[in-house]
Amino acid sequence: MAKVQVITDSTADISKDLIEELGISIVPLKVHLGGESYLDGITISPSEFYSRLKETDELATTSQPSPVDFVEAYREAAKDGDTDILSIHLSSALSGTYQSALLAQSMVEDEFKVTVIDSKKASYAIGMIVVEVAKAAKEGKSLDECVEITHRIIDQEQIYFLVDTLEYLQKGGRIGKASAMVGSLLNIKPILTLNAEGEVSPVEKVRGKSKATDRIFELLKEKMKNGVDKAAVVYTDNRKEAESWAKRLKEMFDMEDVELTEFGPVIGAHTGPGTLAVVALPKQW
């Protein structure tokens, strides 16, 4: 049976330790700021990016990998032969990354097998999928089994996030159905999620950040009636707040471990500093 190599893009916001441990291949997107272009998480770190973002009035922009970038990654993954490639990517509603991967797939289809999946997710909501699938691949699961796991997590996973301001999402054109929130935000904190189409979508409008945070945990408890199997908190320039959320998750769901990971520069360019998210997977997913 062919081994499965899992490939994703840099917006999955997976820690370098997990990337190395699980042998995950990453294709980076680019972020453009102050007349310079950087490879997401490679030539600029999240902390450097947020520091620079605060110092400028300029809007950071991003760009997807080219099909050639994916072809190179696929050929590298397949060079030893007997490899099936599973390529899992950022929501197609937010980026053309998935389309680039599909084009690359068509360019190598006579050489080896590549399966490309639109995660309908962003940041560690992709990362959690990729990590679990990479673990399954390392245990010797087949491509079909890994694809089934991918879709199961996509269906079961929950993500909620808060942004300090909708300005970045609005200006970057990624606000989707949350656009109705704009213009009514005096003291209002919208709780956001990614809907089934992979668009940024409002869950509720809550007055004040503290109440919005409380409501996120209430929503998690409602959704995770049988408990939480895995959870992560994703942060920008606000690790202390993220640690507080992680502690609360551990206490609420009697968990030993909650992953803490940073929003990388590409996702951070569209959410802005001060963003916090929780990603959770129920027990028996």
From TrEMBL:
Superkingdom in the source lineage: Bacteria
Q: Nucleus: present as a keyword of the record?
A: no
Arranged from A to Z, the UniProt key words for this protein are: Lipid-binding
Q: Which GO terms describe its molecular function?
A: lipid binding
Give a yes or no for keyword Lipid biosynthesis in this entry.
no
**Do you know which Gene3D superfamilies this protein is assigned to?**
3.30.1180.10, 3.40.50.10170
**PANTHER family given for it?**
DEGV DOMAIN-CONTAINING PROTEIN DR_1986-RELATED, FATTY ACID-BINDING PROTEIN TM_1468
In Swiss-Prot or TrEMBL terms, this protein is called: DegV family protein with EDD domain
